[in-house]
Amino acid sequence: MSASAPRLTTAVPDTDPWPLTVCTYNIHGAVGCDRRFAPDRVANVLREINADIIALQEVPLGGGKSPNVLKELQQATGFTAIEGPACDTPQRRFGNAVLSRYPVVSVRNVDLSFGSHEPRAALDADINCHGHMLRVVATHLGLRIPERRDQVRRLLQVFDTEEMPVILMGDLNEWFVWGQSLRWLVSHFEAVPAPRTFPSRRPLFALDRIWIRPRHRLVHVEVHATPLARIASDHLPLIAHIDG
């Protein structure tokens, strides 16, 4: 990436953080639809969005000879970066991450692995948005129905709290509009808009979701479908605007 590339605006306002913009983005290992590994394109998509808190999935986190894409994105944005590896071996570290304009107070990584399937996890972070505490859960669920049901059940048990607003963001991999896992989430969070995000060139499925509790804080949900976003990953970023 060019050393002179502009960064996201990182100044924190002197008043409360509302309205707040959050985003979830499956970056596909920073490999675009043209099969080119290009973390700089992902960074430029994040600059286009200029969100306050960003949940990322399929993030290479280093290990062995593997690249650390999160480190590059942190340098590009100037944000606080936290990682939640689903795969964590000396040869390869890979999974979820969060980039935040605001300070991260505490972090928990929740193992959501199911049997012998690909390892999955949820990154659970408490973020201090200028004195307003916010709980952000970034996750990437499994490909099979029983797997997703088990993972959603475990997630709802882990972060069911009334102590602070909760945002669940990520790639839920739910292809069915009325799948059981989605019904459970609707029951817990209430219904939310679900624009289509996958595949990025011509979206057909709403795999990426943003849920918030209490629901009235969610103002608007939209897909970021610029020409760059359509090629930088096989998913489009999903953005939510939140007010206090």
Could you explain the architecture of this structure?
One of its GO terms (molecular function) is endonuclease activity. This is Endonuclease/exonuclease/phosphatase family protein. The protein has a single domain, classed as 4-Layer Sandwich (Deoxyribonuclease I, Chain A), CATH 3.60.10.10. It has five helices and eleven strands. Helix content is 20%, strand content 33%. It is an alpha+beta fold. Helix 1 runs parallel beside helix 2 and helix 3 (145-158) runs parallel beside helix 4. The longest helix has 14 residues, at 145-158. The protein has helices at 39-49, 69-77, 145-158, 180-189, 227-232, and strands spanning 20-26, 53-60, 80-88, 93-100, 104-111, 121-129, 132-140, 166-171, 208-213, 218-223, 238-242. The mean pLDDT is 91. The strands form two sheets. Strands 3-4-2-1-11-10 form a six-stranded mixed sheet, covered by helices on one side.
Secondary structure elements and pairings:
Layout: E1 20-26, H1 39-49, E2 53-60, H2 69-77, E3 80-88, E4 93-100, E5 104-111, E6 121-129, E7 132-140, H3 145-158, E8 166-171, H4 180-189, E9 208-213, E10 218-223, H5 227-232, E11 238-242
Parallel strand pairs: 1-2, 7-8
Antiparallel strand pairs: 1-11, 2-4, 3-4, 5-6, 6-7, 8-9, 10-11
Helix pairs in contact: 1-2, 3-4
Low-confidence stretches: none
Named CATH architecture: 4-Layer Sandwich
Return the structural class.
alpha+beta
Helical residue percent band: 10-25%
Distance between the termini: 36 Å
Please state the overall shape, judged from the principal axes of the Cα atoms: globular
Q: Counting H and I runs of at least 4 residues, what is the number of helices?
A: 5
Outline the biggest β-sheet: 6 strands, mixed
Oligomer: single chain
Q: Give the domain tally.
A: 1
Measured on Cα atoms, how large is the radius of gyration?
Answer: 17 Å
Kindly provide the name of the CATH class.
Alpha Beta
Strand content: 25-35%
Q: According to CATH, what is the topology?
A: Deoxyribonuclease I, Chain A
Q: Provide mean pLDDT, rounded.
A: 91
The strand count comes to: 11
The CATH homologous superfamily corresponds to: Endonuclease/exonuclease/phosphatase
